[in-house]
Structure prediction request, 530 residues.
Amino acid sequence: MRAWVVRAGEHGEREQGALASGVLGVGWDRLAGELADTTTRDDIKALVAAAYPDEGSYTVGNWTGQLHRFVHQILPGDLVVLPLRSGRLAVGRVTGDYEYRAGVALGTRHSRRVDWIVTDIERQQVQSDLLDSMGSLLTVFELSRFGAAERVAALAEGEPDPGRPDADDFAATLTEPAKLYEEVRLRDADEPLTLSIRDFLAVWGAQRRYPAVTEQIGGDLADWGLVTVPPFTEGTLDSQIAVLAGGAEPDESGSSAMSRLHDSTGLPAAVRNAAAHAAGHLPGEEAEAGTIAYRVSNLDSANRMPECVRVGDSLDSAMTVMVYRGYSQLPVLDADGRLRGVVSWESIGRARMADAGADLQAATVRAQEADRSDDLLDWIEAIQRSGYVLVRDHDHKVCGLITASDLTAQFGTRVRPFVLVEEIEQRLRRVVDRCVPLDRIRAVVPKSHAGKVQSAAGLTFGAYGHLLKTAENWSALGWGIDQQRFLEALEECRKFRNSLMHFSPDPITDEQLLPAQGLLELLRSVDPQS
Prediction:
């Protein structure tokens, strides 16, 4: 059994129909019925490209992946989660194969039948890591991490989310920096404290790596002589790091804690490799390693070992994996896990044109390889050009693969909060300009700037709260909602908006988006003409 998320439209506009009819539908209406006859990703890709000729190859590839999942990978018996506009979740069990229903409403023709088990799960019942996994902007995607399928099944049965099967109960006891420091101090260097970056940030009461947060944590670590390996500024929130006394004196053998960490057993390979890399740093390099940026390692796929073939494998083996998994290419690794090239359908075709009996070695071509510490922005052009880039760790072993679809998901997720806030501001401007006289708008602006304000566009986001506190201005709107609750929602959204202005490599979760989403739905309801 697997668990999936299928959205009912970009803004949930099809959710009521889906719940009432027991049928989940997706868009892509230009594809009229042909998907039932497809068997591979390439079949679907050809149809998508023909139906949407103005779209680029990356969009076509992304859409192909979603449709392939919906048509072929979702199976009867699987669980499906439908996020609702109310902020709640519905969970159902898939009861039928893919079917195309001609003549029904647009957006519901490509469909799967679903038996809804529960339709009112509060988000508070779901732990943050599972909610984060549901935050993708894709219409169709699998919940495959942290025991998601079993946890969704528990929610469907009315039980609370049992949490990650690998949840670090001990990390939850580190409720303040002093406790973390004390725990590191009491541990031997060959058994360092390891925890996820998410749990590490929580010690400081933080959820994302804003510059102010990382500066504070970096200062505290320096004051205590602690170091994280790899740097806590690299990797995703679920990446593992070790915290150790980096400034401690050498042991009897003359080795530092950093050097000994590489030989520790039971630690993630990424931690051991990073320790070996860090131990060889020259003075001054540490500061650059802690710089906040969009690192290659900030993408999940850069930290997920890709499927591969090894030097000496048969070409038939590579082709079998590519067809079965729907891949366009596979990395070719040596016995030590280092990259020797890549095999793709294009390279196979070229090799077989030259020699019908060409083997894997003949079809292997050179591939680009990024270090997980590289700036992601430096690799965007290369990924767009070739469609992918392999990722190596500090030990120069392959540890991930980034595709153009990964970039689309990464930056699409980051754009979404700004779009929500922009629509909120536009709606506020329009209704205020329509209902509140200019002299009263200028009254909430400092006198030195009031003359320059010609409309609500001259107001800051925070000024709307001051403007609408006034009974006269609030009455002018004619809204039949509670003023105090609206102002509280506006203030919460203002804080959320301000947080967006501070750079962080970590994505905004669906839970963190709730203030903006809730306020926008409220504005759409009370003033639809805006």
